[in-house]
């Protein structure tokens, strides 16, 4: 009996525990793990690519909306003079502030409406002002072909880039500033009823609903900020005509009395320059204080090119009969609409593949990027904007020597 118990104890009937994996089992587990890892990695990469593309498209669309908003707001207000219908300019240079043509533009060479295809040049500043061409007024109404004036190009910081247009828009911002006392036509200093926020070198328009004078303030720094000094200043551009301030020559059109108003003149340039991040960006440059104004402000990142076509009314009915580039405009006074075209890019790489997409701008130009292998997303924006105040100035007088030249403008 004892022998039987010993035998049962030394040879149990239950199976032995598992002590390891066979080679086949290890290989199967390894293959399954690799497959699962590959699926996970592929899902991550696919999600990351989709996110980058979605983020790129979202940034482009958002930037496009902002860019159109800024341009539309100012273009629609171009030429606004409130109730004034007769402007007498005392400025030395009418090309910067000229209400007979509240919108003035320049094409970058090779981007005008005669061009069918255009490859964006390398991102760098334009070499000089002569790269920007336009049909301009020389200040006394004669149409001349002219490059951008030195006072604009030389003081722009940053400079406009290659391959993008340039536009200046003028209007008036109405204020609550009114004169407190009557003054003579020879007074260089006027007093407002309350404090004002005008600055030195600010462009102003002073007068009533019939006539107003356009000048550049020399000094507006008084203890109570209620006095404005208008003199033949030597600071900044374009300055007032010194002839207007000689003895015996009236400074103001009339000796206005109390309640005559003084308004700010807003003049701003829009162009593409190199932004703080190193990408091309839309800039707004406030020219309301001439060449001594603030540096251009970066508005929207990722705008690679900005192109304009101007709708010209050739029949006098207030509607655009043709759209042309700046260099082909016959008369800037007849511009009643502006077509805006932009190419925007994503700030960062947004795709794993080259985006060699030809983009249509303004219905006549096919634009391709400088480097089609840079893997950034691009998007074209095209819109047409209508200024609400074109043609409202009945008369615009510019002093030249001892005579005055009268611009008679069509009333639309």
Walk me through the structure:
- There is one protein chain.
- The protein is α+β, with helices and mostly antiparallel strands and 412 residues long.
- The protein has one domain (54-408).
- Helix content is 16%, strand content 30%.
- The chain is built from three helices and 21 strands.
- Strands 1, 2, 4, 5, 6, 8, 9, 11, 12, 13, 20 and 21 form a twelve-stranded mixed β-sheet that branches. A four-stranded antiparallel β-sheet has the order 15-14-16-19, with helices on one face. It has a three-stranded mixed β-sheet with strand order 3-18-17, with no helix packed on it.
- A hairpin with a 4-residue loop joins strand 8 (203-207) and strand 9.
- The longest helix is centred in the N-terminal third of the chain and has 54 residues, at 23-76.
- The protein is elongated, with a radius of gyration of 33 Å.
- The model is unreliable at 137-146 and 400-412 (pLDDT under 50).
Q: Keywords for this structure?
A:
412 residues; alpha+beta; twelve-stranded mixed sheet; four-stranded antiparallel sheet; 21 strands; 16% helix; 30% strand; elongated
Main sheet record: 12 strands, mixed
- Give me the count of strands: 21
Overall pLDDT confidence:
77
Structural class: alpha+beta
Report Rg. Answer: 33 Å
Please tell me what the overall shape is: elongated
Helix percentage: 10-25%
Distance between the termini: 129 Å
Uncertain segments are 137-146, 400-412
Percent in strands: 25-35%
Number of folding domains? 1
Order of secondary-structure elements: HHEEEEEHEEEEEEEEEEEEEEEE
- Count of individual helical segments: 3
């Amino acid at each position: 009996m004892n022998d039987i118990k010993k035998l049962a104890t030394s040879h149990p009937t239950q199976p032995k525990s598992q002590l390891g994996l066979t080679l086949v089992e290890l290989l199967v587990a390894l293959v399954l793990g690799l497959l699962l890892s590959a699926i996970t990695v592929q899902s991550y990469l696919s999600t990351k690519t989709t996110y980058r593309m979605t983020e790129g498209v979202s940034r482009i669309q958002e930037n496009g909306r902002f860019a159109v908003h800024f341009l539309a707001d100012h273009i629609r207000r171009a030429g606004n003079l409130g109730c004034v219908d007769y402007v007498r300019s005392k400025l030395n240079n009418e090309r910067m502030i000229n209400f007979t043509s509240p919108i003035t533009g320049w094409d970058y060479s090779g981007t005008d409406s005669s061009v069918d295809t255009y490859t964006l040049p390398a991102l760098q500043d334009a070499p000089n002002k002569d790269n920007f061409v336009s049909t301009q007024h020389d200040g006394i109404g004669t149409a001349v072909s002219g490059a951008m004036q030195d006072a604009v190009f030389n003081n722009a910081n940053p400079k406009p880039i290659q391959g993008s247009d340039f536009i200046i828009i003028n209007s008036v911002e109405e204020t609550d500033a009114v004169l407190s006392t009557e003054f003579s036509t020879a007074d260089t200093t006027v007093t407002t009823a309350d404090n004002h926020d005008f600055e030195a070198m600010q462009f102003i328009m002073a007068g009533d609903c019939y006539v107003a004078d356009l000048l550049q303030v020399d000094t507006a720094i008084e203890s109570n900020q209620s006095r404005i000094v208008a003199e033949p200043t030597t600071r900044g551009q374009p300055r007032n005509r010194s002839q207007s301030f000689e003895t015996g020559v009236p400074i103001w059109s009339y000796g206005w009395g109390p309640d005559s108003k003084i308004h700010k003149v807003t003049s701003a340039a829009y162009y593409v320059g190199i932004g703080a991040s190193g990408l091309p960006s839309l800039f707004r440059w406030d020219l309301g204080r001439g060449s001594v104004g603030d540096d251009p402000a970066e508005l929207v990142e990722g705008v690679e090119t900005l192109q304009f076509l101007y709708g010209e009314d050739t029949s006098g009915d207030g509607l655009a009969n043709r759209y042309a580039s700046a260099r082909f405009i016959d008369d800037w006074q007849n511009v009643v609409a502006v077509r805006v075209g932009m190419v925007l890019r994503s700030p960062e790489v947004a795709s794993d593949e080259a985006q060699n997409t030809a983009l249509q701008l303004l219905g006549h130009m096919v634009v391709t990027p400088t480097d089609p292998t840079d893997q950034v997303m691009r998007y074209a924006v095209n819109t047409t904007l209508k200024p609400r105040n074109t043609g409202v100035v009945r008369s615009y007088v510019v002093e030249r020597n001892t005579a005055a030249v009268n611009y008679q403008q069509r009333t639309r």
